[in-house]
Amino acid sequence: MRDISFDTIRDAVAELSVQACCRLPEPLLEAMRRSSRQEASPTGQDILKQLLLNADIAAKEDCPVCQDTGLAVVFADIGQEVHITGGLFEDAVNAGIARGYTGGFLRKSSVAEPLFERKNTGDNTPAILHIRLVPGDRIHLRLAPKGAGSENKGRLFMLVPADGIEGVKNAVLEAVRQAGASPCPPMVIGVGIGGNMETACLCAKRACARDVDSRNPDPRYAELEDELLELVNGLGTGPQGLGGTTTAFKVNIEFCATHIASLPVAVNINCNAARHAEIVL
Q: How far is CA 65 from CA 4, 99, 170, in A?
């Protein structure tokens, strides 16, 4: 059994909050550079160069890449040999979010209640927290801030097995087509296949938070990722919706077991600032 303190978790989450909001992952920056060279539209090329300049300024000035610093989505894989001391894990994560978002001067976007008062919590808590117990004595944290412009364009399709691969493709294309320019393309698209209605959405969110240079370990799904990216870019939406050949940087797929009569498909979209940061404690 290994002890990890409340303070250690809090401080790590606070640091990840600022890092994720102010510094884009290198694989995403490389995808932007590559796309700026390959984009067929001159307007699209100019937009991609502006996105790269914006990311460079944000990193140098330690300021957010985008003013919408989102809800803090935290994926936590906790080793079952870890003993957390000094408080509850969830409280430590929220304390870290509060410290990172207030101390880092990041926009606070969380309201405590969604329908009537919609009063801002003032520190961007609570986090959207997803916990898995895994073997070992470490904690792996991945923080993926998620803004509303892209999150609002997510879709869930409750298909049936007879819809098959073509049904999955059509669902993804419908979601992207209807999203249009609203998610600030080029996008990173997460697709969740299988499970039930909530686990399909969680798979899509995990896929959305993956690096753009990652691939599904199952070669069949990796091939489908490539095919979906080609189909999405064929829509012609282009950078910022102004037309072009780069509508998305990457399509990532996660899947899980499902019912014999079900084929859920969830689509979760990230904007061009597909932000995330991670640490292992």
A: 31, 19, 32
Regarding beta strands 248-258 and 263-270, do their DSSP bridges make them parallel or antiparallel, or are they unpaired?
A: unpaired
| CA dihedral sign, ordered 27, 31, 37, 38 | positive
Read out DSSP for 22-46?
A: H---HHHHHHHHHHHHH-S-HHHHH
Residue 63, SS3? coil
Question: For every one of its 281 residues, what pLDDT tens digit does the chain have, with 9 covering 90 and above?
Answer: 999 999 999 999 999 999 999 999 999 999 999 999 999 999 999 999 999 999 999 999 999 999 999 999 999 999 999 999 999 999 999 999 999 999 999 999 999 999 999 999 999 999 999 999 999 999 999 999 999 999 999 999 999 999 999 999 999 999 999 999 999 999 999 999 999 999 999 999 999 999 999 999 999 999 999 999 999 999 999 999 999 999 999 999 999 999 999 999 999 999 999 999 999 99
CB 233 within 8 Å of CB 247: yes
The pTM assigned to this predicted structure is 0.96
The secondary element (H helix, E strand) that includes residue 189 is strand 187-195
Q: 126 and 108 in contact (C-beta within 8 Å)?
A: no
All structural domains of the chain with their residue ranges: 2-20+65-146, 149-274
Q: What are phi and psi of 3, to 5 degrees?
A: -85, 135
